[in-house]
Amino acid sequence: xxxxxxxxxxxxxxxxxxxxxxxxxxxxxxxxxxxxxxxxxxxxxxxxxxxxxxxxxxxxxxxxxxxxxxxxxxxxxxxxxxxxxxxxxxxxxxxxxxxxxxxxxxxxxxxxxxxxxxxxxxxxxxxxxxxxxxxxxxxxxxxxxxxxxxxxxxxxxxxxxxxxxxxxxxxxxxxxxxxxxxxxxxxxxxxxxxxxxxxxxxxxxxxxxxxxxxxxxxxxxxxxxxxxxxxxxxxxxxxxxxxxxxxxxxxxxxxxxxxxxxxxxxxxxxxxxxxxxxxxxxxxxxxxxxxxxxxxxxxxxxxxxxxxxxxxxxxxxxxxxxxxxxxxxxxxxxxxxxxxxxxxxxxxxxxxxxxxxxxxxxxxxxxxxxxxxxxxxxxxxxxxxxxxx
Length: 389
Prior knowledge:
By secondary structure, the protein is α/β, with parallel strands linked by helices. The chain has 2 domains: 1-145 and 313-389, P-loop containing nucleotide triphosphate hydrolases (Rossmann fold, 3-Layer(aba) Sandwich); 149-299, Glutathione S-transferase Yfyf (Class Pi), Chain A, domain 2. The chain is 37% helix and 22% strand. It has helices spanning 47-55, 149-163, 167-187, 191-226, 243-248, 253-266, 268-274, 302-324, 341-354; strands spanning 13-22, 25-31, 36-40, 80-88, 91-99, 114-117, 120-121, 134-137, 236-241, 285-290, 295-296, 329-333, 358-362, 375-381, 384-387. The strands form 3 sheets. Strands 2-1-4-5-6-7 form a 6-stranded antiparallel beta sheet, with helices on one face. α3 (167-187) runs antiparallel to α4 (191-226). The longest helix has 36 residues, at 191-226. The radius of gyration is 22 Å and the shape is globular. 44% of the residues are buried.
């Protein structure tokens, strides 16, 4: 990944969004005029469902990581569709995804969800990345710093995925290889089969760890370069903890791969007893410090953690814009409600400086008043969405 020529990133925006039989929405058509979008309404009205639909226009399983069968409207026939007209780096494109009736999990059909660009079938969601990159922040992330390491690894993989669309495939392949090794260990598989699967596991492990380490290094450098001591969103100091990630900064990837393969062989007994691989990228963690206080994020107050997380997501959005020469679309679910008026205004100003289209949800329309005409405002009620500005 190389930085493009220094220039102002091109603004990317969803011009219109259409849903059919998606979650609570039988049919929805939202024109945005290219502006940011506010979705205000009571809890349970379907606001987050709209953001989730957008999140499927990117590699991965979306912001809820839901199974495809869960996305269809309960009253429907099992089909669902998401379509967006996007003004992106290569002009206007129509992106679409969904599934037909009877194509969900458990229906006897294992094909992935349909992916189309300008009406033509595409090999997978990675094709969307040429036209649209997404970053998001949801209430589920509020416990990120105090939660399990696996939560932080998934968060980190989401950061990497917005930069490198192939990362999801590598992570999936690595997890499959680990499951194959676990099964062989449990069943007492032959050494030659374990050797083969460990060779594949080590190769994939180094690829996953390298991608994570690269994005963390780039993001840390950008934060150090652009941090503002007067910002209401304190800067984070981030690092990866894991022997493989550390060694990749000092040793050739092939040497680290050989070392991990030998380590996997040594650990077969311990891993068989544990039922899992006990070393590798699957055991790494993302370390986050509150920069101004030099304090672990987990020890900060709830309000400080929220501000730190917002600052980290905004920094990631700047990184995506810098690396690809085009701004990401930012999805912010119920963020404004947990910020005081000063931080809300600072968030809106930060989004304007980034020149990014944002989609924001909340129960109180008044929380978004400061956005004014910078956003299109919609009132969301169960089964109904209408303009409110």
